[in-house]
Amino acid sequence: MLDLSYDAYVWTRVVHVIAVTAWIGGLIGLSEVFALHAETGDDGLWLSRERALLGRVLIPASGIALATGMVLVLNYGELTEGWLHAKFLAVFLLLVDQIVLTRQISRFASGANIRLPIFFRRLKLFPIALFIGIVALVIVRPF
Length: 143
Known about the structure:
The protein is mostly helical. The chain has one domain (6-140). It is 84% helix and 0% strand. It contains five helices and no strands. The protein has helices spanning 6-40, 43-76, 82-109, 117-123, 125-140. Helix 1 packs parallel to helix 3 (82-109). The two termini are 22 Å apart.
């Protein structure tokens, strides 16, 4: 268990919330960019934007969110609480979503996309639902 000073703890939380917000926004944005890519079929325009969003937003934001989250968990010390386990599951599902989206870039690049734009527009609801659940878990701590 860590024992952060109050200031270090608060600033770690600030960075964590900002990184998580950027991560969720990146997941939502990438899904929408995929929908536009699937509609237009213009690989030259969309592939560079997809890769930029992944490399400049999603990967750094998820890395920072996970690192600061681990620091906060180690500082919290109560790993037996049910709400925290549920949050870990939700974070794992966000990582799965990111992996699915990352693999989709390769499908577009190789011309192997079989998904319709509506699929990607619905897929962006997944991180939104997880984000709402995570916020509720952290604030209410229901179990």
